[in-house]
Amino acid sequence: MKLFSTIAAAWQNFFRKRRVAWLNAQSGSEEGHIHLSPAGTVAACVSLLLILFIGVLTLVAYTPVLEFLPGYRTEATRSRESLIQHVIRLDSMERVMNDMLTYNRNIAMIMAGKTPVVRTIVSSDSTRTSKILVMPSREDSILRAQMEGDGIYSLERSATTTRRSLRAEIELITPTEGLISEHFNIEEGRFGVRITPQSADRVMAIDNGTIIASIWTPDEGYQLTIQHRGNLVAHYKHLSQPAVVVGQAVRAGELIGYTATYGEGETPKAFEFELWNNGKAVDPEGYIVF
């Protein structure tokens, strides 16, 4: 009974209000007071913590505040590159499987004395097989010889002519002067080229466009993203300081920043340049003469 009485007294004492007053330090007179209980104080602290937790959770969920954290942005970039590599591997596996299925079907048709099917490449990245049987003819053989040879219908000549005309039509400008130290290679995770400048050099826009992003990360420094014509998006990485702002329109050859260096009088950092066409990374050397 004594234990229960002690617990009951402590419980009543927990909810009993206390008079908290504040006095004048000089005169000793009471200037104000408030009645508080231990239970009310605990409830107020829990409510304050709950409000702070809900506020922080709402801020993180509905605002881009995490974009300003350097470590978070680096991890997001790595996740994006890893996702792109997985998509490329899946597409390659699909191509290999389609090639194997086409090969097996052609072998079966040859054994049955039929003409193999012809593989046609559609506008997407994947390859599919056509079920239409193509009978060999004299005209087809002549056209095949012309396209595989050195004549005016040569595929190799057409590709070279198209590339030259495309360069002449777009007239992209080299972003900065220097030597290419690493070339474009998706299999190794390089989605652009790396240029080693001789010193802290100017970085220029390759074509007319609009600045759509300007971010900073500890690994890549300042990075500018410009939307150019023809669905081309260019990423300029490792800049010391951008000379443009988001939303600004730039012209071909206009100064947008400078390449970064490790310190005063030291060697410059490698400048990275990526070029994306319709959401896919492309080799910048196919569009720009460095």
* Name of the CATH superfamily of the largest domain: Glucose Permease (Domain IIA)
* Named CATH architecture of the largest domain: Distorted Sandwich
The CATH topology of the largest domain turns out to be: Glucose Permease (Domain IIA)
pLDDT averaged over residues: 78
Question: Which series of helices and strands comes N to C?
Answer: HEEHHEEHHEEEEEEEEEE
Shape: elongated
Assigned CATH class of the largest domain: Mainly Beta
Q: Name the poorly predicted regions.
A: 121-129, 158-168
Determine Rg (CA atoms, Å): 34 Å
What can be said about the biggest beta sheet? 10 strands, antiparallel
What is the count of β-strands? 14
Q: Helix proportion of residues, in percent? A: 25-40%
Indicate how many domains the architecture comprises: 4
Please give the alpha-carbon distance between the first and last residues: 93 Å
Count of DSSP helices? 5
Beta-strand percent range: 25-35%
Which structural class matches the secondary elements? alpha+beta
Topology:
Layout: H1 2-15, E1 18-23, E2 30-36, H2 38-62, H3 70-111, E3 117-121, E4 127-133, H4 138-148, H5 155-170, E5 179-182, E6 192-196, E7 202-204, E8 209-217, E9 221-228, E10 232-242, E11 249-250, E12 255-259, E13 271-277, E14 280-282
Antiparallel strand pairs: 1-2, 3-4, 5-6, 6-13, 7-12, 8-9, 8-11, 9-10, 10-12, 10-13, 13-14
